[in-house]
Amino acid sequence: CEDCGKSLIGECKLHGPLIRAKDRVIPSRARLTLPHYLTLRVLELRAGNQQILGVFAKKVIQKRTQFGPYVGQLSTKLTCYDESRLVLQVLKDGGKYFLDTPNEDCGNWMMFVRLARNQEEQTLVAYQHCGEVYFTTVKPIEPHTELKVWYAADYAKFMEASAVFIKEESDACPLPPVAKEPVDPWICSSCGSTFATFALLESHQCIHKDRV
């Protein structure tokens, strides 16, 4: 104690405890990479103070807006698995690797994006390009809407997953995802062709339009 000049174990009984100044908390790498028009929200607080986070829009995000690439560690085994997030893999030098994010300091904000349980809540599509994974919006995203993602059709085949994912509350998300038949496909009103996603339906060049 600098006031009474004594070396003490613990607090000074005469002058009391020291005033403790704490260091400023530094956000993780993943949180620092979040674009300014997106925000993280705590959706649930589980045992051990574990936060379940979601990514939400703060302003309108246009369709065909690309995010990425997804930042993670290449690994032959997935060490960090969360049933609410997509399992991602890429081809590198002829090998197939997981994009693993064991903690927030080795990834970017895209690790917080939760998977879409159906077509209605899907706002993003995940796909691989030049050995990297990107997310692109499939429709305009309104403010306060959560960003949710599922695989693009070709990437779903690569991941051995279905092109459309419907998850019941009692179901557990498989690892790797199990292929299922598409549910409630998008149907072309002119020719009756079916598509796994709305984006595929929009890109469909219907040859029957002129005849109609």
From TrEMBL:
GO terms for molecular function: zinc ion binding. The lineage of its organism: Eukaryota, Metazoa, Chordata, Craniata, Vertebrata. This is PRD15 protein. Pfam families: PRDM2_PR (PF21549). Keywords: Metal-binding, Transcription, Transcription regulation, Zinc, Zinc-finger. GO terms for cellular component: nucleus. The gene is Prdm15_1. Residues 38-152 form the SET domain. Residues 186-212 form the C2H2-type domain. GO terms for biological process: regulation of gene expression.
